[in-house]
Design brief:
This protein has 147 residues and is mainly alpha-helical. It is 55% helix and 3% strand. The protein is flat and about 70 Å long.
């Protein structure tokens, strides 16, 4: 049992040495007097144009969160199928099958919900509300946005 604690201790110490070693190496390797050109802000090698404080469409975040949600659910589904394969022949096979089908049903229900409200569409028309109903007024373009 002490060897298990020793493995955790060694792992923790290696992690601490790794973090502080990188901090020390970064401090030693950094330029002492960086030029103004090195301190300029850039994005992927391109100079910035305009202010960074513009309004983003929240659709990017929504699509990313939906993707992560379904990605994690698929990761959970793989071990569940492996457990079901072991339990399928025994007395708990029917209960495992019902649980697995309920989980898959929730996945399909969640996907149908996201699809119905247009959360999987990368671009949505501005004259529609979620669900396809026409909006009362058109969305005004964001000031300073490029067409």
């Amino acid at each position: 049992m002490l060897t298990q604690f020793a493995a955790v201790l060694v792992f923790t110490l290696v992690g601490i040495v790794f973090v502080f070693g990188n901090l020390l190496l970064g401090w030693l390797a950094r330029p002492r007097q960086p030029s103004a050109e090195k301190e300029t802000i850039y994005e992927c090698g391109e100079p910035t144009i305009g202010s960074a404080w513009i309004r983003f469409n929240s659709r990017f975040y929504t699509v990313a969160l939906v993707y992560l949600l379904f990605d994690v659910e698929v990761v959970v589904l793989i071990p569940a199928m492996m457990v079901f394969r072991e339990v399928a022949g025994g007395p708990g096979g029917a209960v495992a099958l019902i649980g697995l089908l309920a989980f898959l049903g929730l996945l399909v229900l969640g996907l149908a919900y996201e699809w119905h409200y247009g959360n999987l569409d990368w671009i949505r028309r501005t004259d529609e509300e979620p669900g396809g109903e026409p909006a009362a007024e058109l969305a005004a373009p964001v000031e300073g946005a490029r067409a």
